[in-house]
Write a structure and sequence with these properties.
about 325 residues, alpha/beta, about 45% helix, elongated, 6-stranded parallel sheet
């Protein structure tokens, strides 16, 4: 059916400006995604297209209204996320339950934004060991850091340990100039960035100074038993099977571990098995361990990143390496 039209009254001019975007940038995204034509006319938003297109666009607009009333703004990132959610048939956030995990020092409320992210957060709460596997921008590391901070504030653990393999240095850091911090800083910088966003610079530095938070390369986990801690292993696709086994067997009492990685971005030498892939194969049936898989639908980044991920998925996950 074509030629269908629907009208939505404008209840709040400021809200409409946020939803449609500066220079109508959000409007164009909604029109392109749903196939409708949106026009402001006599205090109404007029939607034209097929009945299915119009109903889909109405759902997008209604969800964006809810976002506006919840957060006071609507970003392009939010528009793209809502469009993806509607087109994939994802339930509304109020039906899923909007779970605010924490509020950052800058006032940003952090909550799972997709069903995949929600399942991931729930798995972290429930399981002692959670693997999160998925492409860039799906919130694997960031949400793990958020949950670690939540656990720390609730006094469920007494320290946070973040680690990742320094593959480019072969985990043999002695030949690099400077002290330990200078040697590993380039490899661990993304973890610092997440902490700074969640805790703020001052709080992060204070926790680091007091050893409540520790950031170290994976090689420095060997021989330790990590109790009463929330441990995050990032970039786990770049571990060897031996390193992965070493890390997992560090887990002590009253601890929780989250392992994140993207199996399409393995930087190990040719012929070297990834510890993350091996762990998938041999640990998936163990009670107490959860494997969560995030996809391009969970990507919360610039819309072009979503298109790039989708293109690589269609191409079979190739990274361009020979």
């Amino acid at each position: 059916m074509t030629g269908f039209e629907s009208r939505m009254p404008i209840e709040d001019e400021a809200m409409v400006k946020e939803i449609l975007g500066r220079f109508d940038e959000h409007l164009k995204v909604i029109e392109k995604a749903t196939g409708v034509r949106l026009v402001l006319r006599n205090g109404e938003i007029v939607l034209s297209g097929t009945q299915n297109q119009v109903e889909e666009a109405q759902e997008v607009l209604n969800r964006l209204k809810n976002s506006y009333y919840a957060f006071g703004e609507v970003t392009l990132e939010e528009v793209n996320r809502v469009v993806r959610a509607v087109k994939s048939g994802e339930a509304r956030e109020e039906e899923m339950g909007r779970d605010i995990l924490l509020t950052t020092p800058r006032g940003k409320q952090v909550h799972p934004k997709t069903l995949g992210q929600r399942r991931y957060v729930e798995a972290i709460k429930k399981y002692d060991i959670t693997f999160a596997i998925g492409p860039a921008g799906t919130g694997k590391t960031y949400l793990a850091v958020v949950m670690a901070v939540v656990w720390l504030r609730q006094k469920k653990i007494s320290r946070i340990i973040l680690t990742r393999p320094a593959v480019e240095a072969g985990e043999r850091l002695g030949f690099l100039p400077g002290g330990l911090e200078e040697k590993v800083d380039p490899y661990l910088r993304p973890l610092y960035d997440s902490l700074y966003d969640v805790l703020g610079l001052e709080n992060t530095e204070r926790y680091l100074d007091r050893r409540i938070i520790e950031i170290a390369p994976l090689a420095y986990m060997r021989g330790r038993t990590l109790e009463d801690a929330f441990i995050i292993l990032d970039e786990a696709q770049n571990t060897t099977p031996e390193q992965m086994k070493m890390f997992l067997t560090r887990l002590g009492f009253d601890s929780k571990a989250v392992i994140t990685g993207d199996i399409t971005q393995i930087d190990l030498p040719r012929g070297q098995e990834s510890g993350l892939i091996v762990a998938q194969q041999i640990l998936s049936g163990i009670e107490g361990i959860s494997f969560q898989y995030l996809t391009g639908a969970d990507t919360i980044r610039h819309p072009l990143v979503i298109e790039i991920i989708r293109a690589y998925e269609i191409a079979g996950g190739k990274t361009g390496k020979e």
